[in-house]
Amino acid sequence: MAHVSAPVTVITTMVDGVPFGSTVSAFASLSVNPPMVLLALDNRGALIQQVRSAGRIGVSVLSSAQADLAIRFATRGLPDRFAGVDWGIDHGLPRIEGATAWLRCDVVTFEPGGDHTVLLGTVSAAEATGVDGLTYYQRRFGSATAATSAPGMLS
Fold this sequence. Notes:
- This protein has 2 helices and 12 strands.
- By secondary structure, it is mostly beta strands.
- It has a single domain, classed as Roll (Pnp Oxidase, Chain A), CATH 2.30.110.
- A 7-stranded antiparallel sheet has the order 3-2-6-9-10-5-4. The chain has a 3-stranded antiparallel sheet with strand order 1-11-12, with no helix packed on it.
- The mean pLDDT is 90.
- Keywords: Oxidoreductase.
């Protein structure tokens, strides 16, 4: 799967006023009506239990300038992943500033997926900035830029 480009996101939640977040590249659009996304969280990570407790998530789709944040939020054992990060609270969820897009999912369904849990999130709010997104391909970060459209291509 290293040969498949993936968007890089930071999935966040808030429990008892404490922010939690983790880098996730297993993320995709699922449905337009209702608007839904899907993502997978590692069952060994702490975030899955926090999301189960909160029942809702924020999704910061990182910009091409935020590879450092992707690494920070993927680092295990870091006592406070949010320390020194430009972030705020949006409708009770941690939101990373400068991201290319933000999604708020107030309804989350959990499905087993091997050593991960698949989350189906119903999107309550979405915003995009228009800046290039961060991608992960062959264990390296890159940038998602618009490709030239050709007749018959997906839109």
